[in-house]
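REVIEWER CHECKLIST
Item 1: Sequence provided? yes
Item 2: Single chain? yes
Item 3: Sequence as submitted:
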Amino acid sequence: MSPFNLLKSILTATALSTFGVGGALVIFSNVQPQRNQRPFMFRTSTLALVSLLALLASAPLCHSQAPQSLMTVIAQWQYPDSKMNGATMSDAATMDSAGERTLQSIQYKTVLTTKDPMPKVIEYYKSKLMPAAGSKTAKPEGKPAPDSGRSVTFHDDSEGRPLAIHVILVNTDKASTTLVISRGATESETHIAWTHYLKL
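Item 4: Structure as written out by the authors:
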């Protein structure tokens, strides 16, 4: 049940409870002395409130599922034995053109470094994200995303440059992950700048 339908149900139940008991109050008021109206009015309000609380208690929760922790998500994407250089988890602030929020979303970030050469790092992510067609090999535990319902894009911008850069973009219906893998000609480590956007 959506929050809007839940609110509508609550308001409807409250109105019906008040009306039903209120009708009894009108009947009794024709036969009871004037001094007895105040107790009946108090009972009417109390019964309406009890009905409202009962409906709230029986309705399913409408909150979004709590997101995974920062370290849990990073572990699903971390290159083996790489070093983590700071990490953050923050509000992704998804908004429309008018600056109004459209949905709840979060963003995870970190930079990983490894002494392994860049081609080896790229091959690792390719094997994880692009399994061979028709492969019946069991899925490894902690794989970043399911095999279906996603797109994976690889883009290289290294030719003729002193800094080798390779970008991997993974999109699903609820998440988008970017891996920017780079290494300078004189650097001793490969850098993996990881960003993960998630709709809640």
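Item 5: Key structural point noted by reviewer: The longest strand covers residues 105-114.
Item 6: Recommendation: ____
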